[in-house]
Amino acid sequence: MSAGTFTPRPGAAPVSRMIVTQTALETRMLLRNGEQLLLTVIIPALLLTLFSAVDIVDTGAGKSVDFLAPGVLALAVMSTAFTGQAIATGFDRRYGVLKRLGASPLPRWALMTAKTLSVLVTEVLQVALLTVIALALGWSPQGNPLSVAALLLLGTAAFSGLGLLMAGTLRAEATLAAANLVFLLLLVGGGVIVPLEKFPGAVQSVLGLLPISALSDGLREVLRHGTALPWGDAAVLAVWAVLGLGAAAKFFRWE
Amino acid sequence: MSNDPAVEIRGLVKRYGTKTAVDGLDLTVPRARVTAVLGPNGAGKTTTVETCEGYVRPDAGTVRVLGLDAAADAEALRPRIGVMLQSGGVYSGARAVEMLRHVARLHAHPLDVDTLVERLGLGGCGRTPYRRLSGGQQQRLALALAVVGRPELVFLDEPTAGLDPQARRATWDLVRELRSDGVTVVLTTHHMDEAEQLSDEVAIMDAGRVIAHGSPEELCRGGAENTLRFTGRPSLDLASLLKALPDGTQAAELTPGAYRVTGEVDPQLLATVASWCAQHGVLPSSLSVERHTLEDVFLELTGKELRA
After folding, report:
1. Are B55 and A255 an interchain contact pair (Cβ–Cβ within 8 Å)?
2. pLDDT in tens, B217-242
3. Chain B residues with CB inside 8 Å of A105's CB?
4. Main localisation, per the record (chain A) (predicted)?
């Protein structure tokens, strides 16, 4: 390098460029991670295919894919916004990535924006893939796509808040274990593949307040029964989103 | 560029619980110079540097960096400073060049990434994810990340820890080049020779304070005396030598023909001894100067080994 190479010429890139490049990197890291792909793509796709093709769980009247597709879409949102984001952010924090980026020109709000955009990009890919699979299995969706998008966004906000809360307060290993455990429990108890009606009445009303139940039930209302917008489920998701994001903003530790 | 110091710390105090990490520290770092911060483990080096970087909020005192308040103006400072962390800071699945290119894109006028990659020998990292790079490769990447945005001021936390001698030289060359291009460098180190080789200024820290500050020459000159030894024919008239030397200098014949002069050994003293030898027809068969190293000074001041 010739003399003058390092002559100071500091400056931040335009914030739009920073957000785009950060989103691209976050998305690449997520798609490159085998464990994350298992969680976000393979498990939902397998569950959808397996449970639609084989009559393992009694999903009530009608085609089982009409019951399962909305549930698996809810699961996909949870796997990316909650489990995947919690684990990735937990390890980013543990490996000093958040600290390192904290010394770069990228503002914190722009980093969080990029993380959210990266979650949304991943979800678009998931929804596209799962929709194709479900249609191939004979799914006949009803309802307004805008209502579906609204529920998916509310669900993303709710799960992101909870995921970031976990990643920002627990050790990375604890986050890894807890996020996977919660994923499994909510998969079983959140009306994704097992209808909530299978549980005893008292348990059912508690489970119905979980974000995963609200999202899978809400999506099912729209996609299966053609409801305009299930306000009750949307309200439950909104409350989780406010609580989760609020707590994450308050308790998140960057180091 | 302004002539204000790059960093000006006054009365910095930082406590963690009941432990005081930094205890009323004052430090001034001049611009476009290399300043080394030395100290035993636990002296408060990293806390001090992280306060300048805006990571740590002081409990008391002021920390001004490039004329701004390190805590209150952190956002405005960040694009202007480069930070090398002691470890980590990279996505475990990211490749070295990918991460470097990414951080470059966060800046308005970054260095050419390919040139920097070649310069620091990172080209061989290829598609290996960060977590599988060697310690030395991770270290060089951290250095590259600190300078790629063309900062005015870089903080290097133990930049050569764990590097092989060749990579260490390459890092030293880069630091010298930064300095000659007008970049201010603040580095912490465990290596005395590194501080001696690289820095214009050395600040020695112990127990949360700066206990000595100056150029390496000043620090080595102060305090301990230095020694000049020569051998010649036995029983030379040392009294006449002492007359020619400054007051306070001592001379002795340790064994027949082996002489030792102690005092403030500078070029003038060496010239005086040599010309005295010439006057007396003595050709010294050996002549050596033993200067105190920074390490001697450090041990004297702190009473501790650097590597605790």
Report:
1. yes
2. 888 776 556 788 899 899 888 888 99
3. 78-79, 106-107, 149
4. membrane
